[in-house]
Amino acid sequence: MRTVVSGVLLLLIDCAAAQPWQFDFQPASGPLEAGFTKVTSSTAYSAAQGYGFVVAPTREVDASAKTWNIFGRIVTVEQAIPPSLLSDATRDGVSSPSPSGGDLPFSFRADLPPGFYDVTLWMGDLATPRFRILATVNGVDTTVTRADINDRRGAFDQTQFGSSVPRRLRVDASGGSILITLGRDDAARNDPIFGALAANGAASPWTFNLDESPNNPPSTVLTATLVPAFSGAALQALMIEPVSDPPLVKVGSTLTLEQAPPDAALLAAINDFNQGNLAAALAGFESLSAPALLPARAAGLLWVAGHPAWFSGEVLTSDGEQALLTEALQLLDQVLLADPGNVQAAHLRLQAAMASEAEQFRRKLGYASVGSPAVENLGRSAALAEQFEADHPYARKGQILWLRNRGGLDPLRNSVSWERAQWNAQQLEPLYGGVNPFVHLYATDQWANSGAPWARVDWNQIFTSGPGWARLLAANLNSWLDLFEWWTIHRQSPEGDIGGGWSDD
Question: How deeply is 1 buried, as exposed, middle or buried, from its count of CB atoms within 10 A (0-12, 13-18, 19+)?
Fold first, then answer.
């Protein structure tokens, strides 16, 4: 059965019992995604029905008509939420909010033929930001640190938009059922972007040095909230699919063939990728034309685009990654048109769509947008990048994209979003600082470079010969270039901000 979710084809193949298992959690009056089964908070489990809540949630929510007033502009849910995350399945949901932060878990059961399945949970609440969610599916855990879109660059606890987060995991249902429990993430653990998370779903503070001076070490210590406290789990949709592995997977630092025909050109392209020869790898992936190899070709393009060293033929451009992501999407659309039941291609397409939108919101809809503040679109880009799990082909590039979004000129002068972006860049510097200019740029503290303020060189004294008009032009041009180079190294605006904008990108 084919289901269109957020413009992305999400597919289910009938397993042992010829039926799809896809559930849309919602109020009784909420919009129902085509092909999904409606589930409200009052849908109790029964053996005869084969699905329902074992422990019911306490609330239903429908964000279809939700709007926000952002700086005097009315923003609708269609404008606020990235297309890959927005559908009738995710507009509404069920939750158990707790104003005190207490854990009010709820559980849903679905009966199905014994076997292994890939389960996709869509978690979050488009109307309200949610944090620190834990989902357990037949003993397998997955977590969501933040399900929100932060529309500020000055602080992470100032957020207005909710969001939707897909999580996919392999589940053993040999007992003939799947039991899903959503509640509070109590673990004190490390998040790849937000670092140390507090125990018991508490707010996660971060103490940092406020870097105010262009030439001197930080002198002010502040504490900010990187992840607000848990306030209730929220579930929007559930999809249960037959097991399907991706064509290519990373094992450690090595890309390997997983579920694709062992074609010689494909194996050579994988070897080139692992040797760091990205141009040859791309050419090899592009050479794959057999229909059975198109998912692997698309996956190869995703992995090349997601490599920190790739910038359109290893030359830095503004659309190098986007061109490959667009091509991958087109290939996967072609596969799905011919085979609507291709679960592997459907999952790859969702990954590609989220990566593509993360790039688009930064580039075409970020600084270049009209009528929408750049910080909102940079926040949307960051919210997508935050959800790339370790096996996502764009996971590392997503981290780099995230720090570029959160760094730069801040409304609240050098506040936590810049400082956190720099901290994240410093974690990536040993791995990718030599191959990715953004990692190295953001990881380098401006006062530690040379410590010298900009001093204007009087190029008129250097150019002592030639026509006066030529000497004047050359002197001014060189003075501006001096300033631009110094500004880029130090990332500093005339007001003393550690900045970004055009100077870092």
Answer: middle
Query: What's the order of all strands across the beta sheet hosting 51-55?
Result: 51-55, 106-111, 177-184, 130-137, 140-149, 161-162
The string over 78-93, giving b where at least 16 C-beta atoms fall within 10 Å of a residue's C-beta and e elsewhere, is eebbbebbbbbbbbbb
What is the C-alpha to C-alpha distance for residues 401 and 208, in angstroms, rounded to an integer? 22
DSSP-assigned letters across all residues of 7-67 = TEEEE----SSSS-EEEEE--TTSPPPTTPEEE-TT-B-BTTTTEEEEE--SEEEE-TT-E
468: Cβ contacts below 8 Å, ≥ 6 apart: none
Give the span between the Cα atoms of 468 and 474, in whole angstroms.
10
Q: Is the pLDDT of residue 392 over 60?
A: yes
CA 383 to mean position of chain CA atoms: 5
pLDDT at 315: 42
> Rounded to 5 degrees, what angle do the CA atoms 167, 170, 175 make?
125
Is residue 101 within 8 Å of 229, Cβ to Cβ?
yes
Sign of CA dihedral 431, 437, 442, 446: positive
For 10-47, write each residue's pLDDT tens digit: 333 334 333 569 999 999 988 999 999 999 999 999 99
Q: Which residues, at least 6 apart from 17, have a Cβ–Cβ distance to it below 8 Å?
A: 112, 113
Closest CA to 155 of 192, 218, 205, 199: 205
Burial 22-56 (b: 16+ CB within 10 A, else e): bbbbbbeebeebebbbebbbebebeeeeebbbebb
The model's pLDDT over 181-224, given as tens digits with 9 standing for 90+, comes to 999 999 999 999 999 999 999 999 998 877 665 555 667 788 88
| Model pTM score | 0.84
How far out from the chain centre does Cα 358 lie? 7
**How many other CB atoms sit within 10 Å of the CB of residue 349?**
26
CATH 2.60.120.430 describes domain 2-185+230-242: yes
d(CA 475, CA 471) in angstroms, rounded, equals 6
Q: Please report the pLDDT score of residue 472 as a whole number.
A: 81
Domain range summary for the chain, segments of one domain joined by +: 2-185+230-242, 248-406
Burial (CB count <10 Å: 0-12, 13-18, 19+), residue 300? buried
* Radius of gyration of the chain from its Cα atoms, rounded to whole angstroms: 25
pLDDT at res. 6: 40
Of residues 29 and 453, more confidently modeled:
29
Asked if pLDDT for residue 92 goes beyond 80, the answer is yes
Report d(CA 201, CA 186) in Å as an integer.
5
How far from 416 is each of 221, 364, 374, 378, CA to CA, in Å? 11, 25, 18, 16
